[in-house]
Protein 1
Amino acid sequence: MPSPLSLTFYGGAGKSDLKYAVRKINPEILIPIHTQNPEEFKKIHDNVIIPKRGETIRL
């Protein structure tokens, strides 16, 4: 009997996927979270708010 196979996948969209999603959704405001490079979003959207730790953002 063959041994069981274990696979692990880590999710995370690539740069081109994120760019596509932002253009397709076309949000009024873009607030990047859970990212190492939030400044990069300013290259693909005109209205990006980058929150500071602990900051409350009112929409």
Protein 2
Amino acid sequence: MDSFRFDEKYLSQIPALQVLVNLGYQYLTPAEALAARGGKAGNVLLEEILREQLKKLNRIQHKGGSYLFSEENIQSAIQRLKNVKYDGLLKTNEAVYDLLTLGVALEQSIEGDLKSFTLNYVDWRNPAHNIYHVAAEFAVERTRNVETCRPDVVLFVNGIPFAVIECKSPKVEVAQAISQTIRNQRDEYIPRLFTYVQTVMAVNKNEARYATTGTPAKFWSKWKEDLADAELAPLLERPLPESVKASLFDLAFAELGVREEIAPYLVGRQVTEQDRTLYALCRPERLLEMAWAFTVFDGGVRKIARYQQVFAIREVLARVKQTDDSGKRRGGIVWHTQGSGKSLTMVMLARALALEPSIRNPRIVLVTDRVDLDKQLGNTFAACGLSPDRAESGRHLVELVSDWCTSSTRRWPTRSSAMPRPTSSCWWTRPSAPSWAVTRRACGRCSRMPATSASPARRS
């Protein structure tokens, strides 16, 4: 058992921490992590770090002036996040997700004017404005129990646990790490940690899988991305600071009952599958992107995008932002295979379009040629917080688009002959503000028919 634990740490956990620290995460020893949460293993938020970040990230803009949130409001925001009522893992996780993505409205008096202002926990659009930490052997007290569970690696954004990584020896199947992570989410273990977690990972040197909170084992996925070894080489060639390295080897040798003052340390090693996946999913900008733009709650079930969905949507966004000399956008086709997640890709694309600041007030039309797919799309959008309108004819669709455009700005001149009657049914939708805090802005493209937009042909 001792040799297994050593292999796990030396061949998986320590190399993982090396990559993460070199990606910009500040390493916290177990003692530092415990101190940052008030010395209580039952707490999972690094409250002092969170407090300082809330002060740095948030300003009240009022009548041309910039003001700080009061200490009382900063504390109130921390308490709102800390004391979310536990109502089962997924419901609580969704409530926390809403707080993280939408922020919290707090009243404050500015120059005698009492108004409500939004305080944000994360700067989603500017990853560099946030602060990132990584902790190893993060001990969390079990529910109604003095015993603790210790996830191998936990990643924090502004003191909030965002990712849990379980590391295994290359002799052990990744399935065991998946099973262990799922077990830790059960009510009798440490579900409180996972109410905040956005991404979970199971890795060994040769294999890696990722998912999100509440994902069953069969849906944990492999990430595939073309990453050149030269892109990852700097992360492996740069040694860890001596203080970090000493702490990690203290962990590695603690269970063997020995201490090696000069322990071998892998620098300049070969790139592994674990390295590739950690770089792909855990570099700060990607970690935030996966949580903010590529996560949906489908009927109360949290789902995270697979690699083909992410890259298809990013291709679509890049494509629709291109225009010709007359201002028309480019179109395209996304090829899918059966079971590749077409419906959720459409939902995530709708969200991505709404979140893209350069695309003002997007209008989205979905055309289906099968009754069963029509029902599936309608149900999927509704379950994910969108309320599409079903067009019964081409003329009705034109009216739906025209009505929305009229309510936003000026009337859009329409011609019913320009819109063919759908072969089966058509859905018209726009992202809903309550779910994703999308500001309804005036449409600047009302003078022309919106182009049908998709990515270049891509088989997934």
Protein 3
Amino acid sequence: MISSRVAFLALVLGLLAPLDFASAGQDEWTDVVSTGSTIWSVVVNPGNPDIMYVGAEGTGVFKSTDAGLSWMQVNNGLTLPAVISLHINPDNPNTLYAATSSVGVFKTTDGGGIWTAVNNGLTQTFLRSMVMHPEDPNILYVGTYGAGGGVFKSTNGGQSWAAADQGIEGLTINALAIAASSPETIYAGSDFWGIYKSTNGGGDWVKVSDGLPLNGTANEEVHSLAVDPSDANIVYAGMEDALWKTTNGGGNWAAANDNLNGVVVKSLAIDPATPATLYAGASIGGVLKSTNRAQNWTAINNGLTDANVNTVTIHPFNRNKIFAGTFGAIATVFELTQSGSQSSLFQINPGLNDAWFDPITDGQGFFVNVFPNAGIVLVSWFTYEVERPDESIGAQLGEPGHRWLTAQGPYADNEAVLDVWITEGGVFDSPEPKVERERDGTIILEFSGCNTGLVTYDIPSIGRQGSVPIQRIATDNVPICESFQ
């Protein structure tokens, strides 16, 4: 009899389309690399934690392939190495986008080997911000400054751009933030004009600035924005001398400044798995941390020899590692590993991205995809109908008993509680009839290690509850998974 591993692998091949840094001591910052100019971005390859990039405004892009032990500049093709934002395509990590301060957007498809300008339709190339859609990396937004400025959008990986700023009055967009839980919702922070919101992917914008100190002074400038990954209505805004928070999508804002008075919040980062935890990078205050959604803050600056922080980043695979990039000619990337917050539980991570099978039941299995930047996990479950269909029922493609269930949602530590969706309608390779998705129960995805897990399900429509053990089909990604523990 064919084994369940082989049976499911045959289904995968036949039915599916292709779908730590070194630290001298915990709880003390250590320097990783000095760039010689203000640091704006620190990003880690989502498929390989040894590969890391840093974007600096005067010296361009730096790359490490050995977890930060050594670095090289990778500026070939950058006509002006003034990088203010870097983004990696999570589906193809060799593809990166670099937004520059005055010559537009550049793209590389070979991990920084060669950069090419991608500015078709970008009528203003003086840039201040850039964000990538959390589910479709071909969708990008940039914020510009100066005459003709505003927001521009690309839907094809930078091949072309179009203005997407209807309703925005300000010419300078310092900050952009997309809601991971509702990616059509975007917030834009300007200088002197406050904050704008779009709920249709930049189609149009409305001003959402009630409560902000817009009184005609320089303190009005919005430097940073961050959206709670689990709630598109909770947003944080760093301004010239304060931090502001809204819990109703910008309906009104209130100060969230306990222990932040007098600092300029230049950067914000939210833990995607524990959204109550935030980090603020401040130009005169170093790095501050809140564990209660900005009700109060604590400085975490032990060993941070430069408190002029311009950017703060959470390591996407180890949430206890934080990076801080500083200002000026002696700008440095620092790293902090927080021992006190390290969980003893196994940590869900992208090293689990793989095909898994049920060792007990033939021909049934799962695809697991972890998206650390969005803080979510996607599970696709291939199974069968509850009872065998009547033998008189035929199917032209496959057989009528095949079923796919999907589930997605946030994860924390070793567990994810996910909504189950059933896809209905539709025919092969045709837009009609329309496909419908219906929510039907939950599954709990739990991993005890890099090779074993458990799926516990509750599907009310069929009155079934139970659990399924899962194992990997292949072990290629196990070393990656183990490197995150």
